[in-house]
Amino acid sequence: MDQPSSPYAAPTSAVADRTERPGRPVLAVLAGVAIDIIGTIIVSMLLGFGYGIFLAINGANTSDMEALLTATDSSLYMTLGMIFGFAVSVLAGYWCARIGKRQIYLLGSIQFVLTSAFFMLITPTEASLLHLLLAFINLASVFLGCYLWQRNNPLTRAAAPASPAP
């Protein structure tokens, strides 16, 4: 006959450590590139539509709208476009790291190179110092996304060695 269990004893259950699925680096890079390219296009279209509506409400004619929407100087439209574009790159870096799970900064770098190559192919302007600066900021945005995943991933934190006590 079984021993009577105490009502004060802790319940028993089969507990196992969570096993981590291996990362998929090719899928991670492709997902990061797709999120960056598609997200940037969607954000720029929404921003362009919104700014165009704003200009139309304020009485701008079509030639003025075209000039303002295609201006490459430091306008509010271009500044907002860069900020939202960098935010999309942070999101793309996060998902690249989340799917890849290993060597996340290498995968983020590959994603950055492929995305930058795509945008350089479709952009008709010549490279300048400003483009180089924006590329480095974009790389930092991708790395920020990788870092955010790494910081918030409990399995990565558990695998990190603990610092010695003073």
Low-confidence stretches: none
**Radius of gyration, whole Å:** 24 Å
What percent strand?
under 5%
The major pleated sheet works out as:
none
Keywords:
mainly alpha
Kindly describe this structure.
- The protein is mainly alpha-helical.
- It has one domain (25-152).
- Helices cover 70% and strands 0% of the residues.
- The protein has 6 helices and no strands.
- α1 (25-57) packs across α4 and α3 packs across α4 (104-122).
- The radius of gyration is 24 Å and the shape is elongated.
- The model has no long low-confidence stretch (mean pLDDT 83).
Write the layout of secondary structure elements.
Elements: H1 25-57, H2 62-70, H3 76-100, H4 104-122, H5 129-152, H6 154-159
Helix pairs in contact: 1-3, 1-4, 3-4, 3-5, 4-5
